[in-house]
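Input set for joint prediction.
Command: fold jointly, output tokens.
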Amino acid sequence: METIESIRPLLALSISFIAAFLILAFNKKPNLRDATSFVAAIIKFSIVASMAPLILSGNTIEYTLFHTLPGVDFKFRVDALGMIFATIASFLWIFASVYSVGYMRSSKEHAQTRFFASFSVSIFAAVGGAFAANLFTLIVFYEVLSLVTYPLVYHKETPESWEGSKKYVVYLVGTSKTFLLAAVALTYYIVGNLEFSSKGMLANASASPVLLTIVYVCFMIGFSKAAIMPFHAWLPAAMVAPTPVSALLHAVAVVKMGVFSVLRVIFYVFGTDLMSRLNLGITTAYVVSFTIIMASVYALTQDNLKRRLAYSTVSQLSYVILGAVLLTPSSMVGGIVHIANHAFSKITLFFCAGSIYCAAHKTEVSQLSGIGRKLPWTMTAFFIASLSMIGVPPAAGFISKWYLAMGAIEAREIPILIVLLASTLLNAAYFLPITYKAFFEKPDDTHSGGGHHEEIREIPMVAVPLVLTAIISIIIGIYPDYFLSLAKEIIR
Amino acid sequence: MIEAVHNSMGIPILSLVTFLPLSGAVILFFIRNNRLVRWIALLVTVADFFVSIPILLNFDRTTYHMQFVEHYEWIPSWNITYFMGIDGISVLFVFLTALLGWICVLASWKAIEQKVKEFMMALLVMQTAMIGVFCALDFFLFYLFWEAMLIPMYLIIGVWGGKNRIYAAFKFFLYTLAGSIFMLVGILVLYFAGGETFDIISLMNQKFPSVLQIWVFLAFFIAFAIKVPMFPFHTWLPDAHVEAPTAGSIILAGVLLKMGTYGMLRFPMSMFPEGAAYFTTPVIILSIIGIIYGGFLALAQTDIKKLIAYSSISHMGFVTLGLFVYNTQGIEGGILQMLNHGITTGALFLCIGVIYERTHTRELAAYGGLAKAVPVYTTFLAIFVLSSLAIPGTNSFIGEFLIITGAFGYSTLFAGLSIIGAMLGAVYLLGMYKKVALGEVTHHHIKEAWDIDAREIVAMAALTVFVFWIGLNSMPFLDMMHVSVRHLLEQLNSVNGPIVAIKG
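tokens >
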């Protein structure tokens, strides 16, 4: 239980920042450029992992870079919650960097240098946010992440992608420039500093309950990366991006930055005591329950595979918040580990969607009849990941659902338990038909037109990462200890 | 009691930093070769910049007294003295002016081809007058510098400006002159009410009757509000900005607008706390109107330079809002935001000038795809656009954040309204960036544009350093003004009673 001063957090996040410049410098040498991403990802993960033992034994690591304002530093602190986020972001970057190379080359995308450079800076921002010691540092990286993912969303530069990326920026920058700015300014006004505190910064504040509730609502809307309805529409819109972006950023880094920030607000700005004193916990629980159900219903109606996955993400993100706001030990653990569990499974699903697109140029669910025979690895991985999403043991999703259900019972909230069960059924309803179609329906050749018999084959650089992430989402279902003990460290 | 403490440096550094550019102008008078003129102007302004650095380094942050003071008899029969000195409120602006000085010379390197010598002389005279305004502690001297700015600026707009330059220069001249007359009246009233002295320090330390405070406050306030410009005195600004050559716009946005808010802090607010208290709510309401109205006007522009000009009205509205909420965060945020706005908007005008030299158009519709055609330029443009819309991590965020925090201390409603302006900023700036920089290159003149050269990179990189320096590590800058601001607040609150509890 001590605080260690070390430059390691800064090193960990700057690796990918430096890598971005190398990537730009190697513009004319694609092999060197793409190797840079991969090597940087491995180094980054190693540094993050090297801090894990210290964090697991209850320490925190700090590094102050600048003094910005009275009571506000540009400062990093590695704690258990940040460690979970940083681990998944940096670990999955390794797979995504290999996958991206395979994807971008096989689909012959343009502006690959811009793509890889922005990608690298995105991971820099995500890990920076994970290690932020206060609200100021957090929102700096939060905004960097919004802005640097913008070129990735408009990457294709088609009218459709301009439209989607506009929505993306309007939602993310718009909410943070208004509600988040107000929330942070009010917090600074009330507390006089912005440093996260494990008891809650506002716990002893003399402000009125009404003002505190306003601050809370501003935070929830301001951190719209968490995609709580009705501030979710940017996420389906972001699906115009190339699939590696949807996979790592819009299933892991960006959206997790949102829920991570929301958890920071709940645990470290307000604190569990104040949350229950103001009755904010249970109110939020019902709001996010609505999101869980509605997003699943939307997902059911989507024929476009990536959009279906996006709505599924909206729904799953609210699981994380639901767990946190129920404020019982089990539910909080469930919510927190779901950050990791959802990440591994959802990235697999997106990798699969990209693999289908690269190999067969299919984007709609209705086109997938019989594709499982041609792409067996991809569709098996898809199946495993969907089981995890539904929460079938031994896949990872089961662990989080189990804890969440326990939490709902502990909190004596039977309606919430019903929401969890209903959403499980809905998950099954929109995921399982895809696998069924892929393996058991006959290929429907009328779509591809006569004479067009291109060989559909797995692309190795695309298939290997997705198989690995699928396997990992089983492994962390069987050995959930790492993330569970970090989660328990947080609520201790 | 504010006192003038002795100049610790042993050399009259304020006179040096003020009059060095003027001496450069005198030298230029005798030179005919345009190339040589440019290099000498650059040399002089860079030297002036280096003179301003020891002022920052030797500045004593622990006192609110005037520093680096020079005080000599001048016209004894009228009690006029040559009195120079700076405190935590003015020190940063001396530095800002010296910084923008050499950037203006670089910005005019190729843009000005006619009457180069005369242009550079006007720039240098301008710089002397501007630094003088920030240093003067005698009202006569102050007024002299203040009026001295008018003529070179009139010439810069009227001779080297765009198509409509005569109209714009005349409008600028008339508006500013009108303001100056109000100020002159104010100064004369003070001269007689304060015991026949122009000494600003001794006037600051006096207490004037309430009625006089209110009227003189109003006179000074109108003079400075025109300069800022605050709504409804803002209409000269877009014309002047759009017609002025690049260096003129940088000076206007970077320094001249700050004269208004600096003047408000230094004279009406410091000298007439009761007058200031009387007008607080109207001033704040005008600021909010400026923030929102300026934002909407910017939103409607199709000319890039006009867009940035209108955005200045909105951003300066934030500054006056911060100054008049009377708490530490508000005033420090306001002062810092003046510096930030000088750096960022100066940089944006520089960017516009640079691209105008290549494309000869400022219409948004005539742009698109700059990121592909001129990537280095666009990177800088992106940084300054983000800084202008106050993204966390850049300089303007710190200022805006402090101002809004301060505003929350005054009134939740006003703070909430000002956030609308912050949001509008994001809309028109990002919208502009998208139209200018992204997409395919469709226009011929953009395909032919060349990327920025070393000269332009140096100017932009220098400003970029400050964008991130202040954005992440603003304490050194706030420390400079902290003690002076606290003293000012004590004065304001001693009259009005503490308006709000001050935290942090």
